[in-house]
Amino acid sequence: MFSFNENGYLIKQLDTDQITAAQRFRYEIVVKELGWVESDTGLESDQYDRAAICFGVYKNDELIGFSRLVPDSDLGFMTFNEFDSLIGTRPDVDLKEAADISRLIVSPRYRDLRSYFAIVKSLYRIMYLWSTTNRIRYWFFVAYDKELAALRDFHHFPIETLGGGQRFSDNGLVFGCFLDLVEAEKNLAKVSPKELAWYTNNLESCFSKP
User: Fold this and answer.
1) Is the pTM of this model over 0.90?
2) Residue 90 per-residue DSSP state
3) In the chain, which residue ranges form alpha helices assigned H by DSSP?
4) What's the start-to-end Cα distance of the chain, in Å?
5) Where are the domains of the chain?
6) Span 4-44, pLDDT tens digits
7) Alpha-carbon span 80 to 86, nearest angstrom
């Protein structure tokens, strides 16, 4: 299990006792606010939760950010299954070294630019730590055009799009995306060595007991 503190937040890998609260948090945003899916249970869950590694950001014991990684399994990847219209040519990589990112969300009360950036960056760091520790090299995910630009320009991730963008809502174009973490490390080493050090240093201190 991973956890660390950053900018007054606790970022941690969730254990099974925290999943229901996370699904309640997801319901408030994914169902009620964004309308991505429907649910009448007060929880937002799907088949991918069975294989997911979940992460949360906490402020004063309140869950304010969430994301999950779904490694290769019999379920496949949400990016391919649910957004196949966004996928042109799939990268020729070993999917056992890949994971799919989904449900990356932030509480509406923390979406000012400074807070949002810090929360999202911390989620990417803990997903990176889990991935590299578990021999995951590749990420697949779906992102709006503005999110994609931010990941490239501010996080310095050399993300490839897997096809043309499509508009599913008024929030902009949506793209299927692919990131090679080894190439991301190389790019960060060139353009922002301090940021690479932040992602990679003090790995042992991020381990916590379940």
Assistant:
1) yes
2) P
3) 19-26, 78-82, 113-133, 145-153, 181-191, 193-200
4) 6
5) 3-206
6) 999 999 999 999 999 999 999 999 999 999 988 999 999 99
7) 8
> How far apart, in whole angstroms, are the C-alpha atoms of residue 11 and residue 6?
7
**Cα 71 from Cα 92, distance rounded (Å):** 17
Q: 58-62 contacts: CB < 8 A, separation 24 or more?
A: 58/9, 58/10, 58/11, 58/12, 59/8, 59/9, 59/10, 59/110, 62/107
Q: Which two tokens stand for residue 205?
A: 């201190």
**Token pair listed for 33:** 């606010």
- Kindly report the number of other CB atoms within 10 A of residue 34's CB atom: 12
Helix/strand number for the chain, H first, E second: 6, 9
Would you say how long the chain is, in residues? 210
> What single-letter amino acid sits at 151?
L
CATH of domain 3-206: 3.40.630.30
DSSP string, 70-81: EESSTT--HHHH
